[in-house]
Design brief:
The chain has 601 residues and is of the alpha/beta class. The protein has a domain of 118 residues. The chain contains 25 helices and 14 strands. The strands form 4 sheets. The chain has an 8-stranded parallel beta barrel, surrounded by 8 helices. A two-stranded antiparallel ribbon has the order 1-8. It has a two-stranded antiparallel ribbon with strand order 4-5. Strand 10, helix 19 and strand 11 form a beta-alpha-beta unit. Bound molecules: flavin-adenine dinucleotide. One of its GO terms (cellular component) is mitochondrial matrix.
Length: 601
């Protein structure tokens, strides 16, 4: 097994030379045709005033829904609210399938949970729902929601194997990774306690290729379904492969921590990362002292050309120096703050691992290229904290390459993380400096229970904000920062992916204050299918770009997804109770006004 050294620059050169199936051009262009033209930027014609949005007007909110659909929503959401049912839902589903047989069970599911949260079995059958939502101003983000049918043991084994590097597995490399970034058998089944779409297990390159094919079909379907709208689709980096994601995340985190460590030494602890500027002379001392580079090397790193004349350096300068001046395998040597020495994390990547990483970047490139051709924006989902630094980093590389004229690729930021504000602001600042278009989806975060349990069990600091209120405050702070950016930069865009009415109201108020008009299509809203129609539809009817995440797939294959929807509606979501109230209110209204047989027109 040969060992190799690769820099990001070389890696990207490689990706460009050896695409998987679609040859990406050196500078990626948006799709041809008027519909695919950049839609951000103030519209030139006079714009209608922004209508007020009333989230309490149930008649308007449910205009697109028949009464039996409202009754089904009420039934399903009420069942989800029962802790006793939820605790036993898997056994109950199993029993129902045994008693009813597969066909009747499928029918029952379609009349209830599946009908509520899933659009249909395939691209053909979901069309009517997509068209109807569109007629009421709500777009679709297609998500083929099939999960591999692995037992928890199989899922665990696959994940344990794929998350350790070859050198660790064959005993030639001793892992110095922090606990957070080591694979743990108890948390090998990534689906445990998770409340969102599908989970991918990358057991082989062939598996990753087949995941990519799935995403390509989704992009195609989104392109066909969008009509004159801006198409959106979701994707997951972890489905594209590259096994040592944990290792890479560890390395990125440690280099970042080193920057903060030096900042603290210079008396700059506690500042937001984007505002922290290190004195270069003192930083050079620390770098030399720790043996990261020799004095001669370090002087070559910090030139007026790379840093300007300020004599200070921030985290972005630091990361870009690390990228361009060091080779990737040297990233595997990380500063140990306790001993004040550099330590090899693992000697190097194997050739095979490098190939895997290259192919992962290529797959992302193929998807982005396809999305660009189809006039569809690509939303990269965020995952657990121990994968997320690597995912973000790979997404960033794809953004640099494809967000040339408009924000084609969106990264996702989870605001339940303590470092969310740093993550968002640094990326905004990086996009400004490098001149690419910033695109972000802001979410609160779906893995809270799993993250907390893992941190407690494994013994590291809980990465999640201590309270729900703290998470909401961070969400609004990040959103505010991004909206300010949008005001000054017509080529940036954000999706407010939340079911929280307060957050949506906050966004509308700030948009008004900042003069961000919905016709500029810089601010998107996103909710999941079957959840919080009372938010999506009033927004859509008022002219705001709003999209539902629309999963589809055969009944048995989306069952794990349905389980998680049920769990999410049980209590984590603050809006679930309000939704039930509004549904009930509308059903009563229709009953009293004789409009029970309402037909959506
Ligand atoms: C279109 C769309 C795309 C999404 N994509 C992703 C994605 O890529 N990655 C991802 O992780 N999630 C994703 N999600 C899910 C999202 O992160 C949330 O789980 C979900 O939307 C609930 O948050 P909310 O703002 O809608 O509702 P709310 O009810 O306001 O918030 C609930 C959320 O608050 C947080 N929270 C609750 N209690 C506490 C507490 N005690 N302490 C700290 N925080 C707490 C949790 O994040 C919880 O999910 C997506 C959601 C949507 C609608």
């Amino acid at each position: 097994m040969g060992l190799r050294r690769t820099s990001w620059v070389q890696l990207y050169a490689l990706c460009r030379r050896a695409p998987l199936s679609t040859a990406p051009a050196a500078r990626e262009q948006p799709a041809a045709g008027p519909e695919a033209e950049p839609v951000c930027g103030p519209a030139e014609t006079a714009r209608p005033p922004v209508p007020a949005v009333d989230f309490g007007n149930t008649q308007e909110a449910y205009r697109s829904r028949r009464s039996w659909e409202l009754a089904r929503s009420l039934l399903v959401l009420s069942l989800c609210a029962s802790p006793a049912l939820l605790a036993r839902h898997e056994q109950l589903l199993h029993l129902a399938r045994k008693l009813l047989g597969q066909r009747l069970f499928n029918t029952l599911m379609k009349m209830t949970f599946y009908g509520q949260f899933v659009a249909g079995e395939d691209q053909e059958s979901i069309r009517p729902l997509i068209q109807r939502n569109k007629a009421f101003g709500v777009g679709s983000i297609l998500d083929y929601g099939v999960e591999e049918d692995l037992t928890p043991e199989e899922a665990e084994r696959t994940e344990m194997e794929s998350c350790s590097s070859a050198l660790e597995r064959d005993g030639r490399g001793v892992s110095k990774r922090e606990k957070q970034f080591q694979a743990h058998r108890a948390f090998g089944d990534l689906r445990d306690g998770v409340t969102r779409a599908r989970t991918y297990f990358c057991a082989s390159e062939a598996k990753c290729d087949s995941h990519m094919e799935t995403f390509l079909r989704c992009i195609e379907a989104s392109g066909e379904a969008r009509g004159s709208w801006e198409g959106l689709t979701g994707t997951r980096v972890e489905a594209q492969g590259w096994h040592p994601q944990l290792q890479f995340s560890d390395v990125l985190t440690k280099w970042r921590r080193f920057f903060h460590h030096v900042a603290a030494e210079q008396g700059k602890a506690g500042l937001a990362a984007v505002d922290t500027k290190l004195e270069v002379a003192a930083l050079q001392e620390s770098v030399v002292k720790m043996g990261i580079a020799s004095r001669a090397e370090i002087e070559d790193w910090f030139t007026a050309e790379t840093l300007g004349e300020s004599g200070t350096l921030d985290l972005l300068d630091w990361c870009s120096l690390i990228d361009s001046r060091t080779e990737l395998s040297r990233h595997l040597v990380v500063p140990n703050m306790q001993t004040g020495r550099l330590e090899p994390l693992l000697s190097q990547f194997t050739e095979e691992e490098e190939r895997q990483m290259t192919r992962m970047l290529q797959r992302m490139g193929v998807l982005a290229k396809k999305a660009s051709q189809a006039g569809v924006r690509l939303m990269v989902d965020a995952e657990q904290t121990y994968f997320q630094p690597a995912i973000s980093r790979l997404t960033l590389e794809t953004q640099r390459r494809f967000n040339v004229e408009r924000p084609l690729v969106f990264n996702t930021f989870q605001c339940y993380l303590r470092d969310a504000y740093d993550n968002v602001t640094l990326d905004v600042e990086l996009a400004r400096r490098e001149g690419w278009c910033f695109g972000a989806k802001l979410v609160r975060g779906a893995y809270m229970a799993q993250e907390r349990a893992r941190a407690l069990e494994v013994g590291y600091e809980d990465p999640i904000n201590p309270t729900y209120e703290a998470t909401s405050a961070v969400y609004h702070r990040c959103l505010d920062y991004v909206l300010e950016e949008l005001k000054h930069n017509a080529r940036a865009a954000v999706m407010v992916a939340s079911h929280n009415e307060g957050t949506v109201r906050f966004t509308l108020r700030r948009m008004e204050e900042l003069g961000l008009h919905p016709a500029d299509r810089q601010v998107y809203f996103g909710q999941l299918l079957g959840m919080c129609d009372q938010i999506s539809f009033p927004l859509g009817q008022a002219g705001f770009p709003v999209y539902k995440y629309v999963p589809y797939g055969p009944v048995m294959e989306v069952l794990p997804y349905l389980s998680r929807r049920a769990l999410e509606n049980s209590g984590v979501m603050k809006g679930a109770q309000r939704e039930r109230q509004l549904l009930w209110q509308e059903l009563k209204r229709r009953l009293c006004t004789g409009s029970l047989f309402h037909q959506p027109a």
